[in-house]
Amino acid sequence: MMASLHPLLVLSLLLLLSPLGTLADDGHPPSKPIVTLIHKDSSFYTIPVKDGAPLVLDLAGSLVWTTTCPPSHRRVPCKSSVCKVAHRSLPASCASSANGGQPGNSDDPNCACAAYPYNPTSGQCGSGDLTTVPLSANATDGKSPLFPVSFSTYVACAPDGLLTSLPSGAAGVAGLSRMPLSLPSQVAKRLKVAKEFALCLPGGGEPGAAIFGGGPFELPSFPPGIFDFADAIRKNPTRLLKNPKNGAYYFGVQGIAVNQVAVPVAAGALALDRRQGTGGVVFSTVTPYTTLRSDVYLALINAFDAATSGIARRKPIPPFQLCYESSAFSYTRVGPGVANIDLMLDGGGNWTLPGGISLVQVDGATLCFAFDMMSPEQSAAANAPAIIFGAYQMENNLMLFDLEKSTFGASGLLSGMRTGCYNFASMA
């Protein structure tokens, strides 16, 4: 009966019922993946796992943090092993925070662990207690919701001022990195499920979904039938690269092509320098559009400009530098018919970006090249990558990250299979 209800209502009911549902910390974890809705708010993506209060998704975030810690919350001792874990790979702005990022006064037997939550959009770092709070979601079999699950999670308490630049109503950030206190790592440990998660970022008014713990993801698709998207993605994984300077997700790109013609970038321009922690291509859910270092961006936009020279232009609309008459395009299930962009991956494969990923509709008459150029300050920042693969380019794809195997995979635009992220939301 519940499965026939609207998914938003289902999630609300499950969150309300979760204290009476299956508890993951009672010694008998359900060992089922969990799923929650993803909502798009402005340029951010949020999940309602903390008492229904939205947490912003940050693929590079090392912690879960919130401004809604209870006044009488439990304080983690500063000498505990989890406190030491909480201080790994602090962002540069956090390393210079109060106490220098140290766990606390080791001479005080009652000292509490100080954690350093980080706002990925403003670059601000706060400080607050490390504590545990219950988070709630819904178990799934990959096809439909099963039962509510509540599980204890380490979070950093943060001051209200750290919410600056985040969407109104957001209560904090859910870090999704490979670090031990990220949400995927904690879910895997608490619920005894696979150390794997999937994101289907929505592009419009309908919600998407986040699935933690593996499983099949079965949906109706075209041609007619039930299709297991997870199985298809796992058959062709791409290796993730590790940057020792942070816990973000990098992948190797040898070059870029437009309309099957190589873009002229210097040899090694896209490589990750593991020793310095610079360069490479990194995923980001808090960067709205894929953003490239100036040398790479200029080569790419010039190649795309040349490949689309016969298409009527419109005046650029910032931040975009190349825009077109939207009426000049024919349309397919994967967006405007335009020259494809191919990322030539390590290992010999290509990741093809069709018009629905390379172009964005900015008003009723205008489509723009959906890539941005890094500022000089961004390029000069510590650990600056060559390319930040932004959220728009991940929208309406099922993105699967396997932390154990250090691989990822993408479904391709779901509209090409006549489905979408809104269908994954029905699992929640």
Automatic annotation (TrEMBL):
The Xylanase inhibitor C-terminal domain, residue ranges = 248-409
Query: Which N-terminal stretch is annotated as signal sequence?
Result: 1-24
Supply the Gene3D superfamilies for this chain. Answer: Acid Proteases
User: Which residues belong to any copy of the Xylanase inhibitor N-terminal domain?
Assistant: 45-214
Q: Transmembrane residues, as ranges? A: none
User: A single GO BP annotation from the record?
Assistant: proteolysis
InterPro entries in the record, alphabetically?
Aspartic_peptidase_A1, Peptidase_aspartic_dom_sf, TAXi_C, TAXi_N, Xylanase_inhibitor_I-like
- List, alphabetically, the SUPFAM superfamilies matched: Acid proteases
Provide any one GO MF term from the record. Answer: aspartic-type endopeptidase activity
One Pfam family linked to the record: TAXi_N
Task: Provide the alphabetized UniProt keywords.
Answer: Signal
Q: Does the keyword Signal apply?
A: yes
**Family stated for the protein in its record:** Belongs to the peptidase A1 family.
The family database entries (PANTHER family) matched by this protein are listed as: ASPARTYL PROTEASE-RELATED, OS01G0936900 PROTEIN
- The protein's name: Peptidase A1 domain-containing protein
- What species was this sequence derived from? Digitaria exilis
